[in-house]
Amino acid sequence: MSKVVFITGASSGIGKAMGEYLKVKGYTVYGTSRNPDRVKDVVFPLVALDVLDADSITKAIKEVVDKEGKIDVLINNAGKGIMGAMEDIDISEIEGGFNTNFLGPIRVMKAVLPFMRKEGKGLIINVTSLAGYSGLPFRSIYSSSKGALELLTESVSMEVKSFGVNVVSVAPGSFATNIASGRYYTPVSEDSAYKEAYSKNLKVSDEYVDQGLDPLVMAKAIHKIIESKKPKVHYKIGAFMERFSVVLKRALPDRVYEKLIMNHYKL
Ligand SMILES: NC(=O)c1ccc[n+]([C@@H]2O[C@H](COP(=O)([O-])OP(=O)(O)OC[C@H]3O[C@@H](n4cnc5c(N)ncnc54)[C@H](OP(=O)(O)O)[C@@H]3O)[C@@H](O)[C@H]2O)c1
Fold first, then answer.
1. What pLDDT score was predicted for residue 221?
2. Number of structural domains the chain divides into
3. Hey, which of 20, 132, 141, 195 has its CA 20 to 30 A from 218?
4. Distance between alpha carbon 73 and the CA centroid of its chain, in Å?
């Protein structure tokens, strides 16, 4: 019997690429979208789920477990970008960012874990970001929500190990997806003290996503992780320099690393 994989946010980008690849590899794939009826070109079933809505999560998971009897792999992939100077971002948008990127994956894990514990096995993959390894300028909320998910992964991994469940994080670098269009941008306000620096930063960040890797690279990496007998707790998938930046952060004095990041973003 093939493994059942449940991917949140599979209507586009990385989630969609993972679903397509895993389906070809013989897995039974279910993806989710907030509006599955609007999505036309997916090759696996999409169920309705909003990570902000616990009832929609319970319903979607029940639907899959009723049909397939189990969920072997949960990929917590749904997420959103948030940009802006921390001082300028409305508190409701900050709450919304953490709600989607941090509380969202928690809600889905809470709903799936009882089924995995019953089976005595399972794999949960939390899609974080390399931006969760360093606080990036004008991405404070995104970086910190993904960094929080990295630490949560470590804690929960230890809590559920005795039930046969593995919890891992996968931090992507830049991938060419729709993330920039779905991102919340704090408007560049004329009277903001950060107007000039933020405008420059927006330009560098958008160039970066456009030059990002093919989401197929993530799909192949995820496939290897699912097939791995002893998965690691953390994975980093991206261009060499992006991954090397995490090594540099550990090796260099804080202020030297900060200077490198500020130069990169022309601050
Ligand atoms: N692309 C990158 O460079 C990059 C880098 C690092 C990390 N990541 C992470 O990778 C993951 C996938 O991003 P992507 O680049 O593939 O972006 P994307 O193309 O914008 O896809 C985001 C997915 O998340 C879903 N989603 C958004 N809000 C949701 C909510 N409240 N409830 C349920 N689903 C929701 C969207 O589905 P619907 O709109 O159909 O509901 C969509 O399928 C995200 O967690 C992102 O933070 C991406």
1. 98
2. 1
3. 141
4. 15
Residue 37 Cα to ligand 1 middle (Å): 18
Rg (CA), the chain: 19
Ligand 1 contact, 175 CB (< 6 A): yes
Domain that holds residue 201: 4-264
Cβ–ligand 1 distance for 172 under 6 Å, the answer: yes
Question: For the domain that residue 127 is a member of, what is the CATH number?
Answer: 3.40.50.720
With a 6 Å cutoff on the Cβ, whether 212 touches ligand 1 is yes
pLDDT recorded at residue 49: 98
Q: Is 184 in the pocket of ligand 1 (CB under 6 A)?
A: no
Ligand 1 centroid vs 82 CA: distance in angstroms?
Answer: 12
Query: Is 142 tagged catalytic?
Result: yes
